[in-house]
UniProtKB/TrEMBL annotation:
Organism: Carpinus fangiana
Protein name stated in the entry: Uncharacterized protein
Lineage of the species this protein comes from: Eukaryota, Viridiplantae, Streptophyta, Embryophyta, Tracheophyta
GO annotation, biological process: intracellular protein transport
Region entry Disordered, spans: 1-22
Transmembrane segments: 57-74
């Protein structure tokens, strides 16, 4: 008697697995799943392109800043130091009237 209950449990378990397999196949083959996968792949492609182009733009902006703006800042600082030095010398020597 115990063995017949064990067989029923085994057959019920295999029926449940069969049902789960059929349901998972029907869900995985549905058009909604295919559309979702396609949308995810398209979003990943667009994101990759966006990140790549953003990196290129950052590189261009950074090198332009280094080539054009940094020398300008250094020159402006030198000019300010020269002006400060002239003011300091003028205050020590006195301004001619």
């Amino acid at each position: 008697m115990a063995s017949s209950q064990g067989k029923k449990r085994i057959s019920a378990t295999s029926n449940e697995q069969s049902l789960i397999t059929r349901v998972s196949r029907s869900v995985s083959q549905s058009p909604i799943v295919h559309q979702s996968k396609r949308a995810a792949l398209d979003a990943a492609f667009v994101s990759k392109k966006l990140i790549r182009s953003t990196g290129k733009a950052a590189w261009i902006a950074g090198t332009t800043f280094l080539i054009l703006v940094v020398p300008l800042i250094i020159e402006m600082d030198r000019e300010q130091q020269l002006n400060d030095l002239e003011l300091q010398q003028a205050s020590l020597l006195g301004t001619p009237k």
